[in-house]
Write a structure and sequence with these properties.
With about 425 residues, the protein is of the alpha/beta class. It is built from 16 helices and eleven strands.
Amino acid sequence: MRYIDPHIHMVSRTTDDYQRMAQAGCVAITEPAFWAGFDRSSAQGFYDYYRQLTEYEPRRAAQFGIQHFTWLCINPKEADDPGFAREVISLIPQFLDHSNVLGIGEIGLNKNTKNELIILEEQIALAEKHNQLVLVHTPHLEDKRKGTRLIMDALSASSIEPGRILIDHVEEHTVDEVLDRGFWAGMTLYPDTKVTPQRAADIIEMYGSERIWMNSAGDWGCSDPLAVPKARLEMRRRGHGIDTVDKVTYHNPIQFLSQSERFQLQWLRHGKKTVGRRKCSRPTSECCCWPCLLPVGSERTNWWRERYSSDPDPVSVFSTQPIPATPRIPSEIRPRIDRPRKRTLDPELPSSDWASRGISSNAEAVASEFRGPAFALPANAARPQISIINTAIFTTIRRTITTHLWKGRKSVVVAQCHPLHVVTH
């Protein structure tokens, strides 16, 4: 399973969410600029936020094989002060050339005020001037229909084609108008508000799967970064075919986002033979493609590249199984693994032979040969012949040998018998 989450605010999520999304099959996300949970006091705060979206977040996502794209704007919740909003808007053009910026968003209305509408029109003009895609935020439930209509009227007054605009947070009472006017529609899956996975499946059944997608819009509030795969399961439970499910959660986002030349899934563009090698012309510090962003040298990346070289689908790499940690051999054991050793320790050797080697008993020879910890032997262990070894000591020796030698690709068999034989091969 693979999917794209085309609207999620990862700056408000932990790195664990990236890991869970990758394990669930997420291959790419797009992150619109939004409210930080508080009103910023200066335009410089937005400047740093745009740097975070264009520089830091792509690298954090790339650690888990997820491509990160972003949208830039001043969000409607902070757009009610035109003077402040215009100062922020003036910062945006210098970031539009970044390789992961897809367009202007999420712009729109919050309380449907006159000032919000003025700033909305100015940001539409900015997108029109720079030929950018547009992602739209619609108001909450009490003003959603009215706000959605105001937004669509403002968009229709521009020269931007409706097919290059996605109106998000649609619900049952607004989705039909959005689709009828030629715009794309986005359904936001929230556990309590907006649309649940069950309601999203209802909308697909009523209005079809054309020009519509699902997203989690995970942010500071009650939200679920795995809402999209849960909606996929709900659709499958209702009997929808895998083609329909993939269309809404994977192919439709690709179809809309590919209108921006910067949206290219790297595993499709580079191909399995070039992943891990730089094929782009941009400096590494400015590029957001996987070969440039992967942390070269880390064990996780090397493991991923090895798997990926024979599998063109990156989703299968991130299974639900944890990545095995590379075991470490104690330094005092490592030199002895490659050293030729006696294959059989025979306890039938005369005691004088043991003494010549500086070992008082054959049981101590076993511990000495494999450099295990010192063992507390029973009183009769000093005799050259051992009829039976204490079970606790036998278990300790077996576990110690196994732990120390399995990385050296040597199997160890410890047999409790008379006499005691320890065989390595």
